[in-house]
What we know:
The protein is α/β, with parallel strands linked by helices. The chain has three domains: 5-161 and 233-283, Rossmann fold (3-Layer(aba) Sandwich); 285-367, no CATH class; 440-532, Arc Repressor Mutant, subunit A (Orthogonal Bundle). The chain has 24 helices and twelve strands.
Amino acid sequence: MRQDTSLQEALPKAWPFEEAQKVAQRLEARGKDSALFETGYGPSGLPHIGTFGEVARTSWIRRAFGTLTGKPSRLIAFSDDMDGLRKVPDNVPNREMLQQHLGKPLTRIPDPFGTHESFGAHNNARLRDFLDKFGFEYEFASATDYYTSGRFDAALLRLLEVYEEVTAVILPTLGPERRASYSPVLPIHPKSGKVMQVRIEKWDRNAGTVTWRDPHTEEWFETPVTGGACKLQWKADWAMRWYALGVDYEMSGKDLIESVRLSSEICRILGGEPPISFTYELFLDEKGQKISKSKGNGLSVEDWLRYAPPESLAQFMYNAPKRAKRLYFDVIPRAVDEFLANAERAQTQTGAELLANPAWHITGGSVGKEYLTPLSFSMLLNLASAVNAETPDILWGFIRRYAPQASPESMPYLAKLVDYAIAYFHDFVRPAKRFREPNAVERIALSELAEGLRALVHSEKTTPPSAETIQNLLYDIGKRHFPDQLRDWFACLYQVLLGQQEGPRFGNFIAIYGVPETLSLIESVLARAQHAA
């Protein structure tokens, strides 16, 4: 195995490299010179945020594999478009027309949108557009194409040879009624075109056919398993695909653990070696409940990209993939700032340290200086909150005061963040603003802060006080009045002055927002408190 010696000695401490090393060891054991990665997609619906996460994570492992070994690899995005349509989706036109085609393969159903030759082709195009938008490198594969072209024929005939063994793997997992009619082979009805889930009465290994009876008409049919006349039940289908294509790596969600186990067993029966698997945790909504596409209780890719750049979504997907995480709007600002911090660190990192940086994986191995910004996303949100920003120009006035060289032209990435911050502030921060009145101790501390800020301005007449100087002033006041819980002092500043629960370093905020403007905030609060008293 041709590995970079320095990487072998110090494997980057990053989960994509840990997974890549497993793939490298598999290839060495099997005598292969290249790796095949796969992701699967059910095209009965549109691509969603889980699709992004699975393809992104697999792509990171693939890039790590190439960096680690220097060996080539491929990523197949496989669409199970021969599946029969089980129910009509809620979010499509011409639902009555689709109702007439239930049970047929998606690629044999007219496109309700009227733009493609079939419903499956329409959704496949949406998948490709979705993946292309993020710049993923992949090869698209259609189950219909693979079945009908004969590419799976040898594997399907092999399944007939071990039909009883494959069936015996699945039967114990089924209820009595389903067990009586189960078959890993699903013939396509030669008249209705539907995918038939019927009992197979006979399978002929030599002829390569299965015999079955239509339960409605009582007609008997002998159907070849090759050439697209049949497809497989999905657990057997998954295993057959691994066997036929020689897939080396595929990840899947926690809800498919049992399916991975069964498909792996079937793959071995066929004579193959199942791929290395990786189980990622599922996402939770704001209440900690499992996200469901049918319930619509999650966050879509479109939702996320309305408020933050794609790199932040990738950062969220990169973090701890084996841990369940809340996927809701309030996680967006932190993900943005995590990516920005990682991109900044990457500028001075080299070797294994750089390869362990999430930004290296997220940006495709090249973390440019365009991601460097003088302000964090959280700071932009705090500025927007303080001034009730409605347009980018308002924020740019404060940004230029802090970083005179900054402009939308010189820092286009920052310009995007400004637009995102205003959208996020408008939809989430402003509606949630809840100001509270300061208590007696807090009033005294705020008065001292006002006095201290005036003194700083007076002592530094030519240049505004630095963020560090202001932060030291905040700490001194906080230690005097909140000796046991310094965090209560900073909570007071955000809750009383800005009407929110938390934010970035307040010294930085004052330095950017401006001392006179901060004094106005404090004085208005103290005047209101005095009037109320």
